[in-house]
Amino acid sequence: MIDHLGLQCADVPAAVAFYTTVFAPAGLREAMRYETPGGPVVGMCGPDGFPQLWLSPLAEGTERPVHLALRAPSRAAVDEVFALARERGAEVLHEPRVWPEYHPGYYGVFLRDPDGNNVEAVHHTPPEG
């Protein structure tokens, strides 16, 4: 479980637009924003309203791409994330599919965000039985 994660972004408004559009099916939205001398810092939240993903300006001279997995409420939501990412022209690393090497119910799509981070929408289907 991720409590919160901070990403450094070359263009915070572009990153906010990407996440709020592409991951809307997973319930992601802007929760709060504050200004700093380097630009805005934006707290993103899910349905609970608690900011767990923070987007901030890129620290001068650094690049820090990461992997971020965001939980989706259903496989259909993962598919919708994929469709919205394609509409925005995002690089698709892996189309939605079951990843049995992780576990039998792991269904995910992997994308690049505007800053080159590897981002994923994932749904964990409970095992039958």
Automatic annotation (TrEMBL):
SUPFAM superfamilies: Glyoxalase/Bleomycin resistance protein/Dihydroxybiphenyl dioxygenase. Keywords: Lyase. InterPro entries: Glyas_Bleomycin-R_OHBP_Dase, Glyas_Fos-R_dOase_dom, VOC_core. The keyword Transcription does not apply. Residues 1-124 form the VOC domain. One of its GO terms (molecular function) is lyase activity. CDD domains: VOC_like (cd07262). PANTHER family: GLYOXALASE FAMILY PROTEIN (AFU_ORTHOLOGUE AFUA_5G14830). This is Predicted lactoylglutathione lyase. It comes from Geodermatophilus siccatus.
